[in-house]
Design brief:
This protein has a 25-stranded parallel β-sheet that branches. Helices cover about 0% and strands about 55% of the residues. The protein is elongated, with a radius of gyration of 22 Å. It is mainly beta. The protein contains no helices and 38 strands. It starts with a strand and ends in a 6-residue tail after the last strand.
Amino acid sequence: PRPTLQGLAVSILDHDTGDLNVVGLRVVNRVTVRTHSVIASYRFEACLLEDGLWHGGPPPAFDHAGGLTLLRCVIRGAVGMTVGSLTMESDTVNAAGGMSFHAIDPIRVSNCWFRDSPIGLELFIRTGGASVEVVGSEFENCDIGLRVNDNDNSAPVLVQKNRFQNCRDWGVRVEQVGGMRVFGNTAWRCGVGFGAWYSRGSTLVIGNTATESTSHGIEILNDGFDFDIQDNVVLGCSGSGIRVVDYEYGGDYVRRITANTSALNQGAGFDLTVYNPYQQTFAYDVSRNVGHGNGGPGLKWTLTGPGAPTLGCNDWFANTAGA
């Protein structure tokens, strides 16, 4: 068994350097961290934190927050931290009050398990220089599995090979970032399986599977930038399988929906809405898709202004509202 403490307060002062390491402890009450160092960082390894992790006193300034590493920890209770960088690896998180970080530097989360929480993991990016990678993790029985929001609209985000299960509102919700890649994930019985909203860079949603969503399987809200929705499988959702809402302002951007399968959904297989208030010329590649057995049409196309998608070798069949 781990040595047990009733509480723990960690302080990193102005001129402290190097890492502060906490290894192999069980802490019954909330761990508090005070930090005011530009270059120091703190690391928890193989710890059981029964009541979460929080700042003691007001949150630090971002450039004095230090880096946080959580390695092979079990975390219960709420977590709310302002950090420089964040690394999480092989942690189990059952944070009844949610887990939320504000960060300015790179974030990497790998092989973790988030469960039974309002938000499994919530990341707020507050200035340029950050990037986000969430890889190989599981999110289960949350309201929102993973949420990423970028105040600066500049951070690139990678969400890859994760599993989202029974996340009631969203499996993934990524908003206003500097480009997003959602690759090879699965979502089962979530609200919206994968949601990508208003990226200020390319949105790539490739090779994912969403089944039995209580809303849409995949939902993209695009503000005139590139998007590529490719090789996804969406089945048995209560809304549309793949829904895209796009605002066109002109420019030579890639807009591609190809090689997806969307079947047995209550809404449309593919629901594409384009707002084109300035009458811009644009091109959409909608090709090599399968839409089968949906309650709505295989492809629903709604356009404000001129234009039409380029259709090629799609297979729409046995949809209640036709092709």
